[in-house]
Specification:
Shape: globular
Distance between the termini: 31 Å
CATH topology: Rossmann fold
Strand order of the largest sheet: 3-2-1-4-5-7-6
CATH class: Alpha Beta
Structural class: alpha/beta
Helix content: 40-55%
CATH architecture: 3-Layer(aba) Sandwich
Strand content: 15-25%
Largest sheet: 7 strands, mixed
CATH superfamily: Vaccinia Virus protein VP39
Length: 282
C-alpha cells in the first residue's frame, strides 16, 4: 500500500474493531457456515495434521478443524485481536476441543520453517496490508507437500452482502483521505492465482462458493455488516448518531431490491466467495 497509507495505524484500527465485535462476530457464524464448510473441505484435513489458522478471530474454523485432525493433530488459532481469541477460548472451554490460541501478525509469524501441514485463512487475505508478505510466511511455515486453503470475497458485483452497505456509506460520507484495502481486491480468480504462484505455491485451484444470507429486517442486515467490518465498524461507531441513523435509513431503502422469495418481511442477500487451495512443493 502507498499514498500515505499507515500500516501500523490500519492494523491498530482493525485490532480495536475486531476486539469490539468479538462476541457478535462469533454469534453470526451461522451466516457464513456454508462458506466455512466449503473451505474446510477444500483443505483436505486428516487426523494427525498440524494446522495453522490465520486471522482466526474467535476460532470458528479452527474449532471445526480441531475435530477433523483428531486424534494426534494440532490446531493453532492466531489473530492480531486478542479479544477475539479470548472469546474463542471462552466458547470452547467446556467443549473438550483441543485448540491452541496465540496473538500473531500473519505478515510476521513466529513459527519455525516447515512446521505445519495446513494453513487456513478464511476471509482474511484482503485484510492484510501486505498480502504478499503473509503468503510468503504461509509458504515458509508449510512443510513440503503442505497445503494452504483460503477464502476471499468475489468481485463486488457478486457480493451485495457487503457492497450494499459500502455503497450507502460512499453516498453519505466523505471520501476517506487514505483509501483502505478493498475487500474485493482478490475477487478476480486470475489475480488470486497469480499472487499465490508468485509466493511459490503450485497446484493452485480456485472455485466459487455462492451463498445467501436472510435477515428479518434492514437493521439486522446492517448489524451483520458491522459485525464483519472490523476497523471500518470501529470508525463508523465514532460517527454522530444522526449520521449513523441516516446510514441505516439508506441501507433499508437499498435492501428493497432483495426481497425474500417467500414474501415474508425482510431480505435475502446473495454473496460470492472464492476458495483457493495451493501446495508448497518440495
Amino acid at each position: 500500500m502507498s499514498g500515505g497509507f499507515d500500516t501500523r495505524r490500519f492494523k491498530a484500527m482493525e485490532r480495536a474493531g475486531f476486539n469490539r465485535i468479538a462476541a457478535r462476530y462469533a454469534d453470526g457464524a451461522h451466516l457464513r457456515a456454508e462458506l466455512a464448510q466449503a473451505l474446510l473441505g477444500a483443505a483436505a484435513l486428516a487426523p494427525g495434521q498440524r494446522v495453522l489458522d490465520l486471522a482466526s478471530g474467535p476460532g470458528l474454523l479452527a474449532a471445526d478443524a480441531a475435530h477433523r485432525v483428531h486424534p494426534g493433530g494440532m490446531v493453532l488459532a492466531t489473530d492480531i485481536a486478542e479479544g477475539m481469541l479470548a472469546e474463542g477460548a471462552k466458547r470452547i472451554s467446556d467443549s473438550g476441543i483441543e485448540l491452541l490460541f496465540s496473538a500473531a501478525d500473519a505478515e510476521h509469524l513466529c513459527l519455525a520453517d516447515a512446521s505445519v501441514d495446513r494453513v487456513l485463512a478464511g476471509l482474511a487475505l484482503f485484510m492484510f496490508p501486505h498480502p504478499e508478505r503473509a503468503l510468503s510466511e504461509m509458504h515458509r511455515v508449510l512443510a513440503p507437500g503442505g497445503r494452504v486453503a483460503l477464502s476471499v470475497w468475489g468481485d463486488r458485483d457478486n457480493v451485495p452482502l457487503i457492497s450494499r452497505a459500502q455503497d450507502c456509506i460512499a453516498r453519505l460520507l466523505p471520501k476517506p483521505k487514505v483509501a483502505r484495502p478493498s475487500v474485493f481486491r482478490f475477487g478476480n480468480p486470475a489475480l488470486l492465482q497469480t499472487i499465490l504462484e508468485d509466493a511459490g505455491f503450485t497446484e493452485v485451484s480456485i472455485t466459487a462458493c455462492d451463498f445467501t444470507c436472510s435477515f428479518d429486517d434492514a437493521e439486522s442486515y446492517w448489524q451483520a455488516f458491522l459485525d464483519l467490518a472490523g476497523g471500518a465498524a470501529e470508525a463508523l461507531s465514532r460517527l454522530p448518531e444522526a449520521t449513523q441513523q441516516a446510514l441505516r435509513n439508506e441501507v433499508a431503502a437499498d435492501l428493497a431490491q432483495h426481497p425474500r422469495a417467500d414474501g415474508r418481511p425482510g431480505c435475502t442477500v446473495p454473496a460470492r466467495a472464492l476458495i483457493a487451495t495451493a501446495v508448497r512443493t518440495p
